[in-house]
Design a protein that fits this description.
This protein has 81 residues and is mainly α. It is built from four helices and no strands. The chain has helices at 6-19, 27-35, 41-58, 65-79.
């Protein structure tokens, strides 16, 4: 998946929310990240990177692991410049 814009990221997080159920321990965070409007993009991405690391470490969304890692790496690369 290509993550070229913040809306791409929000759409993907919304997709993850939609494939999880409301009882999932990640559901509320996914709901928040799919709709939140931060004052600064860097704040949103900084919090999202931490969240993705937790989700991957937990083993959640195994089928989407590669895309989650891709999103994580894309965000990290933007801030290393």
């Amino acid at each position: 998946m290509k993550f070229n814009h913040i809306e791409d990221v929000k759409r993907y997080i919304n997709f993850l929310k939609n494939i999880s159920n409301e009882g999932s321990k990640w559901y509320r965070d996914l709901e928040w990240f799919s709709s939140v409007n931060y004052t600064t993009t860097s704040e949103y991405f900084g919090e999202l990177v931490k969240f993705i690391e937790k989700v991957v470490a937990d083993g959640a969304f195994k089928e989407q692991k590669e895309e989650l890692i891709q999103l994580h790496d894309t965000i990290k690369a933007c801030f290393q410049k």
